[in-house]
């Protein structure tokens, strides 16, 4: 299968490398030092599920240099999504699907506006990974899973083809029976942990053990469940215990990609995580004071250190 990976960081780099190592024709779209390292020395995956050194690696800066493709694995940061989607247009055939594995719950709508309605297959990536250094993606959790389906929850032929490619590559991939609910279940865990780990620059273990920071995380989860319930996403208050249990089961040293971005002085996905909770809460008339606090507390760093406050 010919696949273009748009965004070659923790998600795209990891799953793209697994697909390439299994014999698929994979081209990675990347930039900066990460791109240069991939072109010179290949892409390395450090993972408890097995290391990969993909050399040579097909890597380009501009998606237009990738040529035509059977599918796109779309995993750029949400702040770059519009520009990235536009750059894909020259290589998309009439039926080429975009499998979107991004943070938040607004990705599919945003990409559809640029690439065309029905192009996107929404998905959820459950993995803790990041670019440890140029050319190296470090995977630090015992799990790495993809879940996806058409927006109407059907397992279309394009979904089945990509699912087969993933399974043949040893990837834990599932065709979801309710992808919107899965997106929101991840969102209800991701946005709180991203916000609190970024705000405190601490990992999951200490944050869980301290009564005050644990209360902050739980309040943030409760707000998302309340918004999701009103919005008809399939979330209900009965999901709270399992979500908190999931948080309790995270590795001690788990942190978020947004926390890594803050430490590196990069732009944050704040607007698409806690910011989205605030926006959607306003739309649903559901108060979201915890997420509003997170947005306000990180406001000066949201654009990264390259932009003056």
What does this structure look like?
- The chain has 309 residues and is of the alpha/beta class.
- Helix content is 43%, strand content 18%.
- The protein has helices at 12-21, 32-41, 81-88, 107-115, 157-168, 179-200, 204-209, 211-231, 240-248, 257-263, 274-284, 289-297, and strands spanning 2-6, 25-29, 43-46, 52-54, 59-60, 71-74, 98-100, 120-133, 136-148, 172-175.
- Strands 1, 2, 3, 4, 5, 6, 7, 8, 9 and 10 form a ten-stranded mixed β-sheet that branches.
- α6 crosses α9 (240-248) and α8 (211-231) packs across α11.
- It starts with a strand and ends in a 12-residue tail after the last helix.
Main traits of this protein?
N-(1-d-carboxylethyl)-l-norvaline Dehydrogenase, domain 2; 10-stranded mixed β-sheet; 309 residues; alpha/beta; Rossmann fold; 10 strands
The gist of it:
Helix content is 43%, strand content 18%. It is of the alpha/beta class and 309 residues long.
Secondary-structure map with pairings?
Elements: E1 2-6, H1 12-21, E2 25-29, H2 32-41, E3 43-46, E4 52-54, E5 59-60, E6 71-74, H3 81-88, E7 98-100, H4 107-115, E8 120-133, E9 136-148, H5 157-168, E10 172-175, H6 179-200, H7 204-209, H8 211-231, H9 240-248, H10 257-263, H11 274-284, H12 289-297
């Amino acid at each position: 299968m010919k696949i273009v990976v748009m965004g070659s960081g923790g998600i795209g780099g990891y799953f793209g490398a697994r697909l390439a190592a299994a014999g698929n024709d994979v081209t990675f779209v990347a930039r900066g030092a990460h791109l240069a390292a991939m072109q010179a020395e290949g892409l390395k995956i450090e993972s408890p599920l097995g290391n990969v050194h993909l050399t040579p690696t097909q890597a380009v800066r501009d998606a237009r240099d990738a040529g035509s493709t059977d599918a796109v694995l779309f995993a750029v940061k949400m702040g770059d999504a519009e520009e990235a989607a536009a750059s894909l247009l020259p290589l998309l055939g009439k039926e080429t699907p975009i499998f979107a594995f991004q943070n938040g719950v607004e990705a599919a709508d945003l990409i559809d506006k640029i690439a065309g309605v029905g192009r996107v297959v929404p998905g959820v990536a459950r993995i803790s990974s990041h670019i440890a250094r140029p050319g190296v993606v470090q995977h630090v959790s015992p799990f790495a899973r993809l879940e996806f389906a058409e927006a109407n929850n059907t397992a279309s032929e394009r979904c089945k083809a990509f699912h087969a490619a993933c399974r043949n590559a040893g990837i834990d991939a599932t065709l979801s029976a309710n992808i919107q609910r899965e997106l929101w279940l991840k969102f209800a865990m991701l946005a709180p942990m991203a916000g609190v780990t970024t705000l405190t620059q601490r990992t999951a273990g200490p944050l869980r053990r301290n009564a005050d920071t644990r209360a902050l995380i739980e309040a943030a989860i409760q707000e998302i469940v309340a918004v999701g319930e009103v919005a008809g996403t399939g979330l209900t208050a009965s999901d709270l215990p399992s979500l908190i249990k999931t948080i309790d089961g995270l590795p001690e040293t788990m942190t978020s990609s947004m926390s890594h971005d803050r430490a590196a002085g990069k732009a944050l996905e704040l607007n698409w995580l806690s910011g989205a909770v605030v926006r959607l809460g306003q739309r649903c008339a559901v108060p979201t004071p915890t997420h509003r606090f997170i947005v306000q507390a990180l406001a000066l760093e949201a654009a990264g250190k390259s932009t003056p406050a």
